[in-house]
Amino acid sequence: MDFEAVIGLETHIELSTVTKMFCGCSTVFGHPPNTQVCPVCLALPGSLPLINRKAVEYTIKVALALNCQIQSFCQFHRKNYFYPDLPKGYQISQYDLPLGRNGYLEINTEDGTRKVRIHRVHMEEDTGKLIHSGLTGRISEAQESAVDFNRCGVPLLEIVTEPDLRTPEEAKIFLSSLRNLLQYLEVSDCNMEEGSLRCDANISVRRGDMDELGTKTEVKNLNSFRFLSRALQYEIERQKKILAKGGVIRQETRHFDATTNRTTSLRSKEMAHDYRYFPEPDLVPLEISDQWVDEGRRSLPELPGAKRLRFMEGYGLPEYDAEALTSSRAMADFFEECAKRYHRPKIISNWLMGDFTSLLNATDTAVERSKVTPEHLTEMLKLIDEGVISGKIAKSVFEEMFNTGRMPREVVEEKGLTQIADEEELARLVAEVIAENEKATGDYREGKGSALGFLVGQVMKKTRGRANPELINRLLRERLGGS
Amino acid sequence: MELWDMKGHQLAEMIEKKEVSVSEVTRSVLDRIRSLEPLLNCYITVLEEESQTLARQIDKYIAQEGHPAPLTGLPMAVKDLICTRGVRTTCGSRILDNYLPVYDATVIQKLKDQRYLPVGKANMDEFAMGSSTENSYYGPTRNPWNTERVPGGSSGGSAAAVAAGEAIVALGSDTGGSIRQPASLCGVVGLKPTYGLVSRYGLVAFASSLDQIGPITRDVQDAAIFLNAIAGHDVMDSTSVKREIPDYTKALVDDVRGLKIGVPQELMVEGVEMKVRDSVNQAIELLVSLGAFCEETSLPYLEHSLSAYYIIAPAEASANLARYDGVKYGHRARGSRNIREMYKKTRSEGFGAEVKRRIMLGTYALSAGYYEAYYGQAQKVRTLIVNDFRQAFQKYDVLVSPTSPTVAFKIGEKVDNPLQMYLSDVCTIPVNLAGIPAISVPCGTSDGLPIGLQIIGRAFDEETILRVAYTFEQYFGFNQSPPLTNPGVQLTEDQKSQVQMSGEGRRR
Ligand SMILES: [Zn+2]
């Protein structure tokens, strides 16, 4: 039987505002526990929330970038439940009047561009963090539990998709496109390790010929791209197996355990919370004026899709390059800085997608923190063009710049990597190589053109890569005569 | 006349003229507290040492700098759900028995700017839920006019303290009548300002959309002076309104000529005692004789006020009180095996019966499947009530009614009958639902128990209700004092035996 999976994602993003959603406390990550708190975020009796204007502006930007309708009248609600990391006993969130709804995000899959519909975008506040002593780290088995309220009250954006995704791969592409978009907007660092981007998924499976959706489960704790696809794969398989045996899927919330790669039942539908939402009486409804929306629209940067097209048209880059370079705003900005200083975009693109990206990945470095700047790269490219270094030498120059941040000319001079431009010296080396490689020279003379490449390589070896391959080529051919 | 028996503005004048020192006034009030507190129980915490130290500092300040502000050095009772930094704030509840706020409420900050003089934190119904001050962990407060009777509530401690001379002025809070009803039952003046006029920051929330802080005083002039000190926009409270604040004492003109007064028949309900009805009618006649135009009117949706209120207020309270979970501050039950048990035991031990009742009511009203039928419907009714008032105020400048349908009832009389108790606020609740201002002024007595006249005004038109109240006060001349305030009164043996309080809380 043919089964199709239906996936919807619910993502939570911590906004990178300087202060919290409803108070003036700092949102900086990594401070000692409970040092970034005040009466408001600790829920001391009598304290009242105040809306962070910046957080609203960020949310407007995100809603616009996701092509949402913006509610001109939106409201905060209280979501009531008890948990020690939730000091008020309710979370201030949005309910039936979220800031944005009915939007979409375009993603590029192997089958082309697809629109994933966005159900809603809303604002809420983060909770604190519980630390349980004991082996399992679970509250039920803890000897003692401590609460750190530093994160409590940090602005959170909730973005919910419609059930438009069909495969774990698509879900991954969606999440990475969303992350890229948010980074473009500079509203969040989307750092999954620090928990500033978190993801839950709704998953159901149906027979290929059915229109209506199957019973869904909600899987929580998908806090890395890896977890997301592993959890989705597991959960889809689990449901398929049950259905194939004629079983029934229970509507429930499941937890993904990264150590076992399995999802386990957390609570059934019957045990689901009744959050008793009601309008937050401590905050007056938020009126989002047209002017405010216009300001948001004007402040939108060029978004990934538009940038990709411009890179193709403006710089003549192939689609593949444009896609890769615009997949992060920092990389795109890096490219454009280079393009201002150096006239061959495709060469820049090759370096960025090749050596630069692999060094970044190998050292787990973000583009913004790289020691190599556009100036480094373009200076180096100019040295190649001037014939000062060979393309091959450039690779090691680049690596040295990447590690030390020194300028290319410096590296080249210090390490004696300047290309040997002295024809006499090269001619001597060419003669040596010819003398040492009778077989290859014989082959070449008999018409085997490929033997020339071998000989060039041998000369390069002697120069430790410091020769201009074109020059060697010419010298060899002159010396060997013929073609 | 004893210092403790004087009006705030009289004392302020004497202090300014250096005829009396703040220390002397304070000592007089503290003596009064010492002699009456065992009987009346107006306070949960008395600041005996602190207030005397502060009084000396203020005297020094006046000697050096001269001009005291209108409230400088006037011994004040602060209802115990207004946060005072470093001074325990219990809300009349075991769950906050030892709670020390780390910050001052905005009103306290403003009063500190005036060099106010708190003498204690006043007793109240737990979390302001009640109309008799019997729902306090620290035992009931007694009415100074008759110590077998309740002082009203929830600001009963504040009202009784002002009536008995245990404070000159007091801060209260009013969610459904909690300033006006006890003021009425204790024969003093109580003003509930427009929602949004006085900052709620630092007022421990009962029902956020209804709560408002206001003064309880001995006369209308003190109420106006007090309002001047606490009104105004506060950035810390987004529901506080940005607007120009007038000098309310300028409204104290004894002239009501040409003023149009409406008398909503829905507030002259059948539960209103005969004597109360008579006094209010006489008050209306007096105002008419002074040149006001007065007629009966109808605000049809007012009769649904109580039902709407007892959904909205508990619903908000059920969320507002969720933070008392034993995790961060306040009472925590011992010996729990897990987090659920800790919540359960902490809240079972920490809250009293009425608070639990309202949390349950509110939780139910917000539950899935019931929300529309209860909370949704109540909000609609609230809108209709707001419209009723809006229409009435197109025709009338103020509306008048009894503040409370009855005079002070006996301690214990209504504790087992919540519905009867809830009816105590039937005349005051509509005002909170509409967010408009109202003041209660004494307008007579019935068998030695005070009766209050409620004057209701347009939103942010405190000036007109102050003017009507002031005029009425000038001509009516209610100058009776509770029997306790007769100089030289000695407690009878009976009264002394009443000292045994039923409350379990430790008073200080
Ligand atoms: Zn804070």
From TrEMBL, chain A:
Residues 333-480 form the Asn/Gln amidotransferase domain. GO terms for biological process: glutaminyl-tRNAGln biosynthesis via transamidation; translation. Its EC number is 6.3.5.-. InterPro entries: Asn/Gln-tRNA_amidoTrfase_suB/E, Asn/Gln-tRNA_Trfase_suB/E_cat, Asn/Gln_amidotransferase, Asn/Gln_tRNA_amidoTrase-B-like, GatB, GatB_C_1, GatB_Yqey_C_2, Gln-tRNA_amidoTrfase_suB_CS. One of its GO terms (molecular function) is ATP binding. It is an enzyme of class 6 (ligase). The keyword Metal-binding does not apply. It catalyses: L-aspartyl-tRNA(Asn) + L-glutamine + ATP + H2O = L-asparaginyl-tRNA(Asn) + L-glutamate + ADP + phosphate + 2 H(+); L-glutamyl-tRNA(Gln) + L-glutamine + ATP + H2O = L-glutaminyl-tRNA(Gln) + L-glutamate + ADP + phosphate + H(+). It holds the Pfam family GatB_N. Transmembrane segments: none annotated. Keywords: ATP-binding, Ligase, Nucleotide-binding, Protein biosynthesis, Transferase. Belongs to the GatB/GatE family. GatB subfamily. Allows the formation of correctly charged Asn-tRNA(Asn) or Gln-tRNA(Gln) through the transamidation of misacylated Asp-tRNA(Asn) or Glu-tRNA(Gln) in organisms which lack either or both of asparaginyl-tRNA or glutaminyl-tRNA synthetases. The reaction takes place in the presence of glutamine and ATP through an activated phospho-Asp-tRNA(Asn) or phospho-Glu-tRNA(Gln). Heterotrimer of A, B and C subunits. This is Aspartyl/glutamyl-tRNA(Asn/Gln) amidotransferase subunit B. It comes from Candidatus Hakubella thermalkaliphila. The lineage of its organism: Bacteria, Bacillati, Actinomycetota, Actinomycetota incertae sedis, Candidatus Hakubellales. The gene is gatB.
TrEMBL record, chain B:
Residues 486-508 are annotated as: Disordered. InterPro entries: Amidase (IPR000120), Amidase_CS (IPR020556), Amidase_dom (IPR023631), AS_sf (IPR036928), GatA (IPR004412). Its EC number is 6.3.5.7. The keyword Zinc does not apply. GO terms for cellular component: glutamyl-tRNA(Gln) amidotransferase complex. The active site is at K79 (charge relay system), S154 (charge relay system), S178 (acyl-ester intermediate). It holds the Pfam family Amidase. Keywords: ATP-binding, Ligase, Nucleotide-binding, Protein biosynthesis, Transferase. GO terms for molecular function: ATP binding; glutaminyl-tRNA synthase (glutamine-hydrolyzing) activity; transferase activity. Residues 24-466 form the Amidase domain. SUPFAM superfamilies: Amidase signature (AS) enzymes (SSF75304). GO terms for biological process: translation. PROSITE patterns: AMIDASES. It is an enzyme of class 6 (ligase). It catalyses: L-glutamyl-tRNA(Gln) + L-glutamine + ATP + H2O = L-glutaminyl-tRNA(Gln) + L-glutamate + ADP + phosphate + H(+). Allows the formation of correctly charged Gln-tRNA(Gln) through the transamidation of misacylated Glu-tRNA(Gln) in organisms which lack glutaminyl-tRNA synthetase. The reaction takes place in the presence of glutamine and ATP through an activated gamma-phospho-Glu-tRNA(Gln). Belongs to the amidase family. GatA subfamily. Heterotrimer of A, B and C subunits. This is Glutamyl-tRNA(Gln) amidotransferase subunit A. It comes from Candidatus Hakubella thermalkaliphila.
